From TrEMBL:
Superkingdom to which the source organism belongs: Bacteria
SMART domains associated with the record: FCD, HTH_GNTR
PANTHER family from the UniProt entry: GLUCONATE OPERON TRANSCRIPTIONAL REPRESSOR (PTHR43537:SF24), TRANSCRIPTIONAL REGULATOR, GNTR FAMILY (PTHR43537)
MF GO annotations: DNA binding; DNA-binding transcription factor activity
Protein name per its UniProtKB record: Carbon starvation induced regulator
A Pfam family per the record: FCD
Domain HTH gntR-type residues, every copy: 1-68
Keywords: DNA-binding, Transcription, Transcription regulation
């Protein structure tokens, strides 16, 4: 791994974890000193992260961590819903026995997952549903999942897994096993979009309280 790759990876994790708070200025000198690297990889890493939507670059001013807004959360999850539904349509066509087994195992892990591991198992199950989609589409989905993760990490303690969530996951599993692509999409789209609306509502309340 190069210095630039390591710097980008480290800053990305700090952004996604909330260690670097939204709206916070990114001071290149301070970051390079803290990470023990020169300013050049820090500058290039910030450009990469700006292209990913995690950072906002401003002319003649310091870059800042991209702010978190209710409208942005809503849009992110709407885009995710459309992308993941397209991926599921492409992936579930002619599902192989190996793919079925992959989806089934991912669901089994999700069902028995302790709360601390639930987010990772949840993502694995969704990934399994569209594992057969093309690399470009999966890269787009991954990008938007990373952006959405910032909102999820901030509000995760207030977002509870409901019985309805579990029922929807089981329904998704059954639709996939039956090869019923349209039913899977019919379940998946609101499953993702409603999550976005719940998060947007929480951030709307925060904005109102300020």
């Amino acid at each position: 791994m190069t210095v630039l790759e390591w710097t980008t990876l480290t800053l990305r994790e700090e952004l996604l974890s909330g260690e670097l708070r939204h709206g916070e200025p990114l001071k290149q000198d301070a970051i390079s000193s803290r990470l023990g690297v020169s300013r050049m990889p820090v500058r290039e890493a910030i450009r990469t992260l700006a292209a990913e939507g995690l950072v906002i670059e401003r002319p003649n001013r310091k870059a800042i961590v991209a702010p978190l807004f209710a409208d942005d959360a809503l849009e992110l999850f709407q885009i995710r819903a459309e992308l993941e539904c397209l991926a599921v349509r492409l992936s579930l066509r002619g599902l192989s026995s190996k793919q079925r087994e992959h989806i089934s195992r991912a669901h089994e892990k999700l069902v028995v997952s302790p709360e601390r591991d639930y987010p990772a198992r949840h993502l694995e199950f969704h990934n399994a549903l569209y594992a057969g989609a093309g690399p470009r589409l999966k890269a787009l989905i991954e990008q938007h999942i990373k952006l959405a993760e910032r909102y999820l990490r901030v509000e995760r303690s207030r977002l509870q897994v409901t019985e309805e969530d579990r029922e929807e996951h089981e329904a998704l599993l059954n639709a996939a096993m039956a090869g019923d692509t349209e039913l899977a999409v019919e379940i998946l789209h609101p499953h993702i979009a409603e999550g976005g609306r719940a998060i947007a509502e929480l951030f709307s309340r925060k904005d109102t309280d300020r």
